[in-house]
Amino acid sequence: MAVSHPENSQxxxxxxxxxxxxxxxxxxxxATQVFVRENYYGATTAKIAAAAGISEPxxxxxxxxxxxxxxxVLKKSHEGLLNWNAKVLNENADPIKRYQAFTDMYKYxxxxxxxxxxxxxxxxxxxxxxxIKRQIRQADEEIVEQLADNIRQAMxxxxxxxxxxxxxxxxxxxxxxxxxxxxxxxxxxHTQDWIYEEIKRLIEDVMKKx
Length: 210
Prior knowledge:
This protein has 210 residues and is an all-alpha fold. 78% of the residues lie in helices and 0% in strands. It has two domains: 1-63, Homeodomain-like (Arc Repressor Mutant, subunit A, Orthogonal Bundle), CATH 1.10.10.60; 66-210, Tetracycline Repressor, domain 2 (Orthogonal Bundle). Helix 6 packs across helix 7 (115-125) and helix 8 (130-156) packs across helix 9 (166-185). 27% of the residues are buried. The model is unreliable at 7-11 (pLDDT under 50).
């Protein structure tokens, strides 16, 4: 005779009482964890359902396929980073300190505050699918453009003076930040602190005030 576990029944009750949007968020959170742990090809909707404490058909009532679910995980991660960046970019009136703080906070967000959300992009890079590759390119372009717009506004207001184009400056800052975050995620520990300090000095050098 099967033994009923109270904690399992309580979990099932909680998930069955959820509204649609709340359950969808639960699935996305569980999917992020499973994709990080199992990689894209090792993850299955059955494993994601088990992690979320729901039945597998519930996933298909919200997402058409595993790929559709993965794309939504990437979109949610991207939206979170854009919102975080917007908050950081609005916190400092001094533009040089703003972009230096952007570097510090990007490191914190991607390697500590929202680590799993960042790792899914490394997972995505290993998937040979045109829709997923398109999502990676689009997300990268939007982050660079967000930073470039802020730099452009600071230039137009006379807050910084640089012979480099805003898009180029944004690409340099974001490219270095993303690469160093990736190194931290794969376990590199020897050079990251002094390199981050050098990046902040580089930002000051290429964005000279009049």
